[in-house]
Recover the amino acids of this structure.
C-alpha cells in the first residue's frame, strides 16, 4: 500500500485507539480555532455591518484595508504578533508567547478581516430599498440592524466557515505557540514536526485528522445554512 | 438563529477561555529553553524535561529551532537557558556577555554521507576537509542546510578552512531542518553533512552510506549556557541555572548515556559533564 494509504489508516487507528496525545492535539486545535473564530465574530460582525451601512470619510480606504486583510499571509501575522508578544515587545508584560492564547491572538488577526469582509458583503447585498422601507415603517436603527443581520444570516454563516477554515489550517502557530508538546502542539505544527522527523505516515495521519475536523465543522454549519433555507 | 448563535458563542467563550486565555501562572515557575532541533527530534528532551519538571516543580517550555536562532532569542532575553551545538558561535555570545557559564553536556559526531557510487571518490578519507575539497573539485552535488543551524555553522567553517567558497549549481541550500535536508540529498543522490543521531532516525528513508567519519573537526559538542539577566526584563535566571545544573547532574548524564539504545541499538549521545573543549 502506498504511503498515503498507510497515513489514512494510521489516522483512523490513532483516533479509534484513543491515543491520548493525538486526541489532546486535536482538541487543542479545535479549542484554539473555535476561540479565535468566536472572537473574530464578536468584532467582525459589528465592524462589517458598520462598514456596510455607515458613510464616513475614509470608508473606501477602510473597506480596501479589510479586503486586503482577508488574504493576510499567516507567516507574516505569526512574525508580527510574535514580536509584539516577545518579553521585550510592546505586549511582553502579558507573558502570552508560547501559550495557546498567543495562537488564539494570531488566528484572531487572520480571521477577523475575513469575517468583517464577508459580513460587509452579506449586509450590502440586502437591497437598500428594504432598509429604507423599514425605517419608513417606524423601525428604530437598532431594530433595523437586527432585521438586516437576520436577513443576511445565511451568507454570514459562510463568514463563520471561511473564518474557521482559515484559522484551523494556518501556519502562524509554529512561531506563536512554539509547538510545545502537551501545551501548544496543534495539528498543523504536529504535521510539520512529523514531516521534519521523517515520520511521513504520522504526518499524513495528522493532516487527515485536520481535514476531517474541517469537514465536520463545515458540514454542520452547511447543514444549518441549507436546512434554514428550505 | 442569531440568538442561538450568540448563545453558542457565549458558551464557547465561557468554556474555552479560562483554559486557553489564562495568563501564564506564577511566572518564575516557567523556564524557557531555546535549543537546537536535534535534541527535540531525537526525543531526548521528551525524556529529560519531565524528569526536570518532577524534580524541581518548574514548568519547561522548549523552543526547538536552529542553534543560530536559539542563541539569537536568548541574546534578546526571550529564553532563560540555551542548549546548543555550535562551539565557535557559542563562544562569541559568551565573549559578548550575552550568555554565561557555558558548560559541555554531551557530544556525538557528524558524518559525511553520499551516493554509493561516490563520484567524488571520498569514501574512507580520514579528513573531512579533503573530502569537501574533492566534492567541490568534481562539482558533485552537495546539500547544505543553509539555515544558520549548528550543522550549517560547522559546514561553513569546514569550507572556510578548505579555502573554498561553495557556490554553483552543485551546491544546494535547502534552508530546512536536518530531516528534510537528508530527504533532498537522498532524492538528488547528493552528498551531505549530518549528525549521526538524525541519520539513525532516518534510516527508513535515507539509503546514502556513511563515507567519512571519526575526524576530530566532526565532533558535535552540545553545551548548555545560562542567559544573562541583563538581556531582558523577564529572564528567569534562577530557573535557567536550575535547568543547566540539571543537565550536568549525574542522574541526567546517566540517562543521556543510555538514551537511544532501545530504539537504535546504540546510544545517540556521549555524556561529558565536567570536561572542557580541549579534553575531547
Amino acid at each position: 500500500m502506498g504511503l498515503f494509504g498507510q497515513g489514512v489508516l494510521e489516522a483512523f487507528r490513532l483516533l479509534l485507539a484513543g491515543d491520548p496525545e493525538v486526541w489532546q492535539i486535536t482538541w487543542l486545535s479545535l479549542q484554539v480555532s473555535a476561540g479565535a473564530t468566536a472572537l473574530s465574530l464578536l468584532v467582525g460582525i459589528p465592524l462589517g455591518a458598520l462598514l456596510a451601512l455607515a458613510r464616513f470619510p475614509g470608508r473606501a480606504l477602510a473597506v480596501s484595508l479589510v479586503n486586503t486583510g482577508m488574504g493576510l499571509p499567516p507567516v507574516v501575522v505569526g512574525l508580527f504578533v510574535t514580536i509584539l508578544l516577545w518579553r521585550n515587545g510592546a505586549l511582553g508584560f502579558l507573558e502570552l508567547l508560547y501559550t495557546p492564547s498567543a495562537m488564539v491572538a494570531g488566528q484572531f488577526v487572520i480571521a477577523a478581516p475575513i469575517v468583517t469582509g464577508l459580513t460587509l458583503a452579506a449586509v450590502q447585498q440586502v437591497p437598500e430599498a428594504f432598509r429604507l422601507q423599514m425605517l419608513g415603517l417606524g423601525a428604530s436603527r437598532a431594530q433595523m440592524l437586527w432585521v438586516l443581520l437576520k436577513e443576511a444570516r445565511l451568507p454570514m454563516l459562510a463568514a463563520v466557515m471561511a473564518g474557521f477554515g482559515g484559522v484551523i489550517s494556518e501556519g502562524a502557530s509554529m512561531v506563536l505557540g512554539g509547538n510545545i508538546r502537551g501545551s501548544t502542539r496543534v495539528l498543523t505544527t504536529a504535521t510539520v514536526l512529523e514531516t521534519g522527523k521523517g515520520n511521513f505516515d504520522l504526518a499524513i495521519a495528522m493532516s487527515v485528522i485536520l481535514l476531517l475536523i474541517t469537514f465536520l465543522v463545515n458540514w454542520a454549519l452547511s447543514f444549518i445554512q441549507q436546512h434554514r433555507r428550505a | 438563529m442569531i440568538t442561538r448563535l450568540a448563545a453558542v458563542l457565549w458558551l464557547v467563550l465561557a468554556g474555552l477561555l479560562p483554559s486557553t486565555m489564562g495568563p501564564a501562572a506564577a511566572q518564575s515557575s516557567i523556564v524557557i529553553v531555546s535549543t537546537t532541533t536535534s535534541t527535540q527530534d531525537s526525543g531526548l528532551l521528551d525524556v529529560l524535561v519531565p524528569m526536570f519538571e518532577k524534580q524541581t516543580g518548574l514548568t519547561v517550555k522548549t523552543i526547538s529551532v536552529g542553534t543560530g536562532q536559539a542563541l539569537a532569542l536568548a541574546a534578546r532575553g526571550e529564553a532563560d537557558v540555551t542548549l546548543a551545538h555550535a562551539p565557535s558561535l557559542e563562544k562569541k555570545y559568551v565573549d559578548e556577555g550575552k550568555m554565561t557559564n557555558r558548560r559541555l553536556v554531551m557530544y556525538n559526531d557528524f558524518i559525511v554521507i553520499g551516493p554509493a557510487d561516490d563520484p567524488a571518490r571520498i569514501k574512507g578519507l580520514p579528513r573531512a576537509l579533503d573530502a569537501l575539497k574533492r566534492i567541490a573539485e568534481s562539482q558533485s552535488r552537495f546539500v547544505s542546510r543553509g539555515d544558520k543551524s549548528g550543522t550549517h555553522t560547522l559546514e561553513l567553517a569546514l569550507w572556510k578552512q578548505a579555502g573554498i567558497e561553495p557556490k554553483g549549481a552543485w551546491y544546494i541550500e535547502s534552508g530546512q531542518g536536518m530531516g528534510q535536508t537528508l530527504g533532498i540529498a537522498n532524492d538528488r543522490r547528493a552528498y551531505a553533512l549530518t549528525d549521526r543521531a538524525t541519520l539513525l532516525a532516518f534510516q527508513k528513508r535515507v539509503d546514502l552510506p556513511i563515507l567519512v567519519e571519526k575526524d576530530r573537526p566532526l565532533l558535535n559538542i552540545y553545551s548548555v549556557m545560562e542567559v544573562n539577566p541583563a538581556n531582558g526584563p523577564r529572564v528567569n535566571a534562577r530557573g535557567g541555572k536550575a535547568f543547566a545544573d540539571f543537565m550536568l547532574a549525574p542522574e541526567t548524564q546517566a540517562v543521556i548515556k543510555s538514551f537511544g539504545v532501545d530504539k537504535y541499538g546504540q546510544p545517540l549521545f556521549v555524556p561529558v559533564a565536567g570536561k572542557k573543549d580541549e579534553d575531547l
Remarks:
- The CA atoms of residues 34 and 70 of chain B lie 5 Å apart.
- Chain B touches chain A through 39 residues (CB under 8 Å).
